[in-house]
Amino acid sequence: MAGNVICKLGKNVMKKNIYSVLLLPFIFACTEDNQQNISSFEEEKKYEWRLVTAWPKNYPGLGMAPERIANLVEEMSDGQMKITVYGAGEQVPAFGVFDAVSSGSHQMGHSGGYFWKGKVPAAQFFTGVPFGLTADEINAWTNRGGGIKLWREIYEPFNIYPIPAGNTGTQMFGWFNKEINSLDDIKGLKMRIPGVGGEVLKRAGGIPVTLPGGELFTALQTGVIDATEWVGPYNDLTFGFHQIAKYYYYPGWHEPGSMLELLINKDEWDQLPNHLKAIIETAAKAVNQDILDEYTAKNNSALRELVDTHNVELRKLPDDVINEFKLIANQILEENAKKDEMVNKVYQSYKSFKQDVSEYHKVSEDAFVEARNN
Ligand code: CA
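A: This is the predicted complex of the input protein with calcium ion.
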C-alpha cells in the first residue's frame, strides 16, 4: 500500500514541480508489474486458523472430515490459508466446540448440531431427527430445499456460519447387553443417545445420556451406562464395543442420515476474501460427500468382522417397538414445534420436504431397493 501511495504522489508531483526529480527512483519503479504485485500482496495475506472438533484426533470418518477440509483448503489456496485441527479435549472439550467458535477463541469447529439442543433446539434438524431424512435427502433439503438459509438464521445470533461437512449415512441403534423385545425392556435403561432420539427413549421409560464418543467405552464398561449408540459398524468397531456388549441392534431409527457441521466464526468469515470463502465452501461440499462414501464403503466389511470374527449378535428391533418409537418421535416433534417459534419454522420446512421426497422415493429408490433385495 505504501508503494502505491508513493507512485500516485510521485506522478502528480512530477507534473507540477521541478523537485520531483527527487522522486524519480520511485516513479521509475511504478510499472504495471508493480501495481499487480501490490494487489497480489493484498491477496496473499496469510490466514492461520484453528479448528476444534467434537471427535478424537484423526478419528476415522467423523474426525477425518475436518482434516480433509484443512488439507483441501491449504492446497486450493496454494498455502494462503492453513487450518490446524485439534481433537476433542486438546484445546476445548468435545461439547465446548460451539462456544469456542461463537466467542471467536477459535475460528472454526467441526461437530454435530444436535449436541447444541440446549442452546439451539432447532439445530437438531441439521444433524437429523428420528424417522427423518436420509443422507441424500438431508443434503437435498439443506442445499436445495431451503434448509441452509434456516440453519444460518438460527446460528446467526451465536455469530456462527455453518456449512454441511460430512454425513454418516444411516446409523445402527446400538449396543446392548440385554434383548429388546418390547418397550418394557427400555424402562430404566440408561443409554447414551443424543438429540430427539434421547427424548424418545426418555418418554419410553429409559434414561438418555449425552456423552462424547471418546468416553463411551469406559462408560459402558464401568456400568455408568447400560447401552450406547454411536455410529455404525465402521466406527463402532474402532471403539471396541463388541468386547463389552453382546447385542448389536438395528435399524438406527434415531439417526437416519446424520449430517456433520463445519462451524465458522461469523466475524472471521465476513472478513475473508471471496476466493477463500469459495474455497472453504467447495472443500466442505467435497468432504460432505467423501465422508458418506467412506462410511458406505467401509461399513460392510466392518459388520462382517463384528459378526464373523467377534461373534456379535446382530438383532433387528421388533417391528412393534419401532412403530412405538415412531409414534412417540412424531408426538415429540409436534410438541417441540409448538413450544418454540424457530423450531416450528425449521420443522415445517423439514416435514414438508420429507413428505414430498418420501412420495417420490417410494416409487423410485425404495421400490428399486425392495425389488433388488427380494
Ligand atoms: Ca449416533
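Residues 171, 229-231, 255 surround calcium ion (CB under 6 Å). The mean pLDDT is 91.
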